[in-house]
Specification:
The chain is α+β, with helices and mostly antiparallel strands and 317 residues long. It is built from 8 helices and 12 strands. The strands form 3 sheets. It has a 5-stranded antiparallel sheet. Strands 8, 9, 10 and 12 form a 4-stranded antiparallel sheet that branches. Strands 1-3-6 form a 3-stranded mixed sheet. The longest helix is centred in the C-terminal third of the chain and has 23 residues. The relative contact order is 0.09.
């Protein structure tokens, strides 16, 4: 029975297919007469003989190896199965999809900044996508010595050099260290090009690289937020008046404390200044309290310099 068992045919397939596996190598002593090849969607099958590519098959389906595969192999197209012999060959199944991977800096990167002698520690995270682009290079560098290769293997390889690339492209051309998100597209494009070159010899291609966010230390982020708030306010005096009024109306300033006394004194001074402006204004006019329209919003008459419409008497300010 042991003699005849070697004649049993094989089913050459990737049985335990995983989405995170880049390739899988089918190995057996021999491919027997009557064996079949099964290619599933999203897979390519590469026949290898003595480490060299004999044929690449990309169409999904169920094939008879003797009649439908061997005639298309480079050096084995005339192979004939014997009574008790088979074809010694390997079949490499390749996952053809694009793989999307999340990445993040392992440690904070200290970016040189003139204002901070020790540099500014920054973290970043995002995603990148890659796929197999060259089967010959893949087999020569990776598949020739490994039975399988996973997405995690590629992620670890990229993360190992990512900190250096981030520092290179963030520091390049004097990027605004406090607003890196605005330059994230240019930074990501530069990193993608460098990563693609790093993986080129392995037959892999980086098709996209995205930076979703930069993270600053808490104290730096607080300073950035304050700076943004002050830029939005514009008129600092008006901002102080608004904050003072909000504090009093919200009940946060009450009692006889220094803060309450100071608030009352400031409001009194503001009211006195307003009264003096009204008193110094020409007779029949009050100090302007806002921007007057060029035309009366009630009747459309041109307004001139008065605070009331000369036609209908509508108050303009």
């Amino acid at each position: 029975m042991g003699i005849f068992s070697k004649q049993f045919s094989n089913v050459v397939e990737w049985q335990e297919f995983r989405e995170d596996t880049i390739f899988y190598k089918w190995n057996n002593d021999e491919i027997k007469k009557g064996s079949r090849l099964i290619i599933r969607p999203g897979q390519d099958a590469i026949f290898l003989y003595n480490g060299k590519i004999e044929g690449i098959f990309k169409d999904e389906g169920d094939y008879d190896i003797e009649s439908q595969i061997i005639p298309f192999l480079s050096t084995l197209k005339g192979f004939r199965f014997g009574f008790n012999s088979g074809m010694r060959a390997e079949v490499l199944f390749v996952n053809t999809k694009e793989f999307q991977v999340k990445w993040g800096t392992q440690n904070a990167i200290n970016i040189p900044v003139q204002q901070l002698p020790g540099g500014m520690p920054i973290r970043a995270f995002g995603t990148f996508t890659f796929k197999i682009s060259d089967y010959v290079k893949l087999i020569d560098k990776i598949a020739g010595v490994r039975e399988s290769y996973n997405v995690e293997d590629v992620r670890l390889r990229i993360v190992a050099i990512l900190d250096q690339l981030l520092m290179k492209w963030i520091s390049k051309e004097g990027k605004d260290m406090f607003n890196l998100q605005a330059n994230s597209f240019d930074i990501a494009n530069g990193i993608r090009t460098d990563l693609d070159m790093q993986l080129f010899d392995s037959g892999l291609s980086v098709t996209a690289f995205n930076i979703m966010s930069f993270t600053y230390p808490e104290e730096i982020q607080t300073m950035i937020n304050k700076n943004a708030s002050h830029s939005m306010v514009g008129d600092v005096n008006r901002y102080q008046q608004i904050e003072l009024t909000n504090g009093m109306t919200s009940g946060k300033m009450h009692g006889g404390g220094a803060a309450s006394d100071m608030a009352g004194m400031m409001m009194g001074m503001n009211m006195a200044n307003q009264m003096m402006q009204n008193m110094n204004a020409p007779s029949g006019q009050s100090a302007p309290s806002g921007n007057k329209p060029n035309f009366c919003p009630n009747c459309g008459t041109k307004t001139g310099s008065t605070n009331f419409c000369p036609n209908c008497g509508h108050k303009l300010v």
